[in-house]
Amino acid sequence: MLPGWPCASAFRKSVNCVTIAALSLRDNGNMNSLDGIRILDLSRVLAGPWCTQNLADLGADVLKIERPGTGDDTRTWGPPYLRGGDGQDSAEAAYYLGANRNKRSITCDIATPQGQDLIRALVKHCDVFIENFKVGDMARYGLDHATLSALNPRLVYCSITGFGQTGPYRERAGYDYAIQGMGGLMSVTGERDDLGGGPQKVGVAVADLFTGMYATVAILAALRHAERTGEGQHIDMALLDTQVAMLANLGANYLVAGKRDGKVPGRMGNAHQNVVPYQVFETAPTPDGQKDYMILAVGNDSQFAKFCELAGRPDLSTDARFTKNQDRVRNRAVLIPQLEAIFRSRPKAEWLAGLEKAKVPCGAINSLAEVFADPHVQSRGMVSEWEHPLGVSFNIVASPLKLSATPVRQDLPPPLLGQHTAQVLQEVLGMNAADIQRLRDQQVI
Known about the structure:
The protein is an alpha/beta fold. It contains 19 helices and 13 strands. The chain folds into two domains: 8-244 and 380-441, Rossmann fold, CATH 3.40.50; 278-366, 2-Layer Sandwich (formyl-coa transferase, domain 3).
């Protein structure tokens, strides 16, 4: 507690009742699932902010702590940038906007003793603390789990790093690209090696995104435990752990049989390791002579029989080499060339219409422009419009979470750097204008 500040316990009791009541009803008139949960977010870039954006969408009051003057690294990760009312690029990168809605931004220099005191004071009024600094950094600042849990025993403390708090790599910096490589994903992503393939990363930072999602689940579970017992805990999330878990069926393939048989799953291009036919096929050219493609995703033997009927080749589904999926996998090299020839005989639109009518899983391969123009995507509300503090409106991808009784919120656009500093310090810590100005003068905030 900084000198002259109100008693934490008494102030929390009085202020939090007001705060929770104020947060209970959003603009949509509904309560949110995490109303009354306050999160102190010291994470930046993607994995941590993705997690806290999920929690903020669900109603948590996320206080995003940022470095004075610069803020979250992704604020400058452009172009593209949001354009202000004058039509010129602002300092708000689209990357940042896509991962930081429904949060409040507070600037605080945690490298200073006063900044560290400020964080410790805020922790007493929070339910969750999340950080993605290198292992040991939080202890240097006096903001480690042991220190903060002594101040708030109910605190759920989540650390997100590349390699975790333990193990021989714990002190390494971890980045999504490297983790995709180290965690095996790039060994199974891309065209087959015999067709000229090589290591290929996924187009979005999936190790970061999945870690953010797993962290969200872990925090919700830890909050439930704290609710029952009054006991917080430390969550140790690692990008590499998450990437290994994401190997899913391929990881299981190797551990169950590949290790025994000396077979390591490799790149299969657009084909599936365990299901056939489940891949991209070239169709007849477009009217202007361009190549065209689509996806066939047969998931069981009944669907394969329906496809063969539609394709005019019912004999394929009764051929003992192809009747069951396990047979089709073993005889992939014989079946696929036949299917490739069949698909090239008709245009994509005809295939899609017929397969959808027959209830055989299939799909187009859309560009992002086609995705956001898709009538179903639009009907599902997957684009949300926001009014930015700069005085302009903009669109970002919406949350996919659709809860009937406690829908996600949409009331705080991604904040300007430090936009809510004074508001939060007054509301949560009871600081007056003089207290706040003193911290500004000291360049703490």
